C-alpha cells in the first residue's frame, strides 16, 4: 500500500466506523455484528500506527485509548473554575433569592434548576469545532491535561459538525460562531459501570482466592472510582472503565446566546450529553418544588447526585451580579440532607497543624455511609467534645455532608456503658509534649512550641514552598520530611543554604534531581514581595491580604514599623490581622529569620508590578493615549510610557503633556487637545522620543 492509498483507506475506515458508532450509541441500532466492527477498528488502528501522519484528529480509534502518559501536564485555566455557594434548607435558599432580588432592583429574573452531579469537574476546549484539550478542575486556577482520557468518553463529541455552528452566524456581518469555546461539565461513572467493575473484581478475586493470591480491593464509590480513572496514565485502561460526562455550561467570547437555557439547548443539538432534567423556574417557589421532586426521585437516576444547582438564566443579569472571590453570586447549590449512620467511638486522637492548632479526631468502628466506609470523623475542637459530652466507647451518629469529612452529630445515650470515662482533651502536645495553651477568644488549643514542634516546622516549610507562595515545585512534602529528619532544614531560610552534595545523599536523589531542587530554590528568589509576605506564614495574612499590604506599605521595612493604626488603615486589614502582624514583627526570632531570607536575596519590596525601568526620559510627563497603533498595541504603549518614567492619565486637561494619537482617535479628543494647546504626538514621534 502506498502512503496515499493508506491515507484514503484511513479516511474510509474512520467514516465507516463513525457511522456505525453513531447508529449504535445515538440510535441504539447495531448494523453489523460486533466482530466485524472490531475488525474494522483493528484495521484502522494498525494503519494509523504505520502512518500516524494520516490519523484524523477525531479518529474513532481515540475512543479505545492507547496513549500512555508519563505524568499529566498542568495547564492554566483560561477562566478560573470556581466553586458554588451552598444552601442547606429552604430558608437559606430564600435568603439567596432575596439577595438576587435586591441586587437586580426591579427587573424580573428567572432561574434554571439542574441536578448537581457528584463526579469530577471537567473543562473541555473546542477549537474550530475540534475537541483539543480537556482539563480537570485542579485547584481552580490550573488543572491536569487529561485530553487522551476524555477522548475515550463516547458521549463527548470529538468534533462538532459545522452544521450546528453555522445557524448562529449572523448574516449581517458574517460573524462566525466563536472559533474557540469551552465547555464545563461533570465526569462520572454510572452506577451500572461501577457495579460491573466491582463484579469483575469479585470474579477475579474468586480466582485469586483459589490460587492463594493477594486479593484486589473493591471500588469504594462511583465518585472515587471516576476520579481515580480520570487520572490513570494509560488511556486504554481508562476506556475500559467506561466513564461518562454530562455537560452543563458553555463559555466563549462573543457567544450568540442571551441565556443559559439557549446555551444548553445548543449543546444538546450539537451532540453533547446534557442531562434532560434541567428546568426553567420563574421563581424560588418553583425551584423549591424542583428540589422536593428530586429529593427522592434522584435515587432512580443512573448516577450519584448530591443536590441541585440553581443559576440565573440571563447572561446580562449574571454580569450585573458578578462574582465573589470564590464563587458566582448568580448561582448556588442546595445540598440534600446528609446520610446518617450509627457506630462505636473507639478512641480520640489529636493532630497538630502548621499553626500549632490541635484538632481532635474520632476513631470509629468502620461503618458504611453514602457509599464509603467511614473510620474517622472530625471533632473540630474541645468545645465540640464538651458539647457532645463524649465518653469512651459511646455509640455515636455520624453524618457525611457534601464536605467529604464526616462528623459526629450526636450520641445514643441509651447505649452508654455505666462508668465509662468522659473524653478529656489532651493537655500536652501529642507531637512534642509541650503544654497546650488557649488564646483569648479562640476555641482551639495550640501547641506554643512553634520553633520546636515537628509538624509545625514542616507545615511552615510546606506552606513556604507552596505554589501560591514561593512556588518551589521541586520540593514536595516527602522531600521536606527527609530534609527535616536529617536536620538539613529547620526553617525556610535553611533551604537557601542547601548544597547539591547534601541533597544527593538523600534517598531517591541523583545528580540531576538534586541540581533541580537547588535550581528551583534559587529561582524562587525572583518571586515578588507579596508572595514572600504570604510565604512567611503570618497568621491571618493570606494571599489577598499579603497583596493589599504590599500595595499599601511597598516594602517590608515600612510594614515592620507600621503601628496598629497604620495597619488598619490599609484596605481589608482589620484589628485581628493588624495585631497578628504586629506580634509577628515583635518577635526577635522572626526578625532574625527575615534577615537570613533577605541576605539570601529574596524580594522584600514591591517591584512596581514587575515594572522594568528603561529610562528616565519621560519623568514628569503625562500622556493620554488614544486610538489604534501600528507597531504596538495600546497597552504596550502605556507600559512603555511607564517604563520610561512617564505617567498615563485618562482624559485631556491643560496639565496633560502629550496626547499620543493613533489611527481613529476620536475628533472630540483632538479638538480638546488643540484647544488646550496640548502637543499631539504620532506613534513614530513617540518612538523617536524614547529611543
Ligand atoms: S455549575 C461556578 N452545574 O459542582 C461553578 N456545577 O461547586 C459553576 N456540579 O465541582 C458550576 N453539577 O463540577 C454546575 N449542574 C451543575 C453541576 C455542577 C455538578 C459541580 C461542579 C463543581 C461543583 C461546583
Using only C-alpha atoms, the radius of gyration works out to 31 Å
Q: Major β-sheet, in short?
A: 7 strands, antiparallel
State the helix count: 26
Q: Which segments are poorly predicted (pLDDT under 50) over 5 or more consecutive residues? A: none
Shape descriptor? globular
Comma- or semicolon-separated keywords:
691 residues, seven-stranded antiparallel beta sheet, 38% helix, 18% strand, binds 2-(butylsulfanyl)adenosine
Question: How would you describe what is shown here?
Answer:
The radius of gyration is 31 Å and the shape is globular. With 691 residues, it is an alpha+beta fold. Strands 12, 13, 14, 15, 16, 17 and 18 form a 7-stranded antiparallel β-sheet that branches. The protein has a 5-stranded mixed β-sheet with strand order 2-11-10-3-9. It contains 26 helices and 22 strands. Helices cover 38% and strands 18% of the residues. The protein starts with a helix and ends with a helix. Helix 13 packs across helix 14 (477-485) and helix 18 (529-535) packs across helix 19. A hairpin with a 6-residue loop joins strand 17 and strand 18 (445-446). The structure holds 2-(butylsulfanyl)adenosine. Residues 82-84, 114, 116-117, 121, 186, 248-249, 309, 327-328, 331 line the site of 2-(butylsulfanyl)adenosine. 2-(butylsulfanyl)adenosine binds next to strand 3 and strand 8.
In summary, what is this structure?
This protein has 691 residues and is α+β, with helices and mostly antiparallel strands.
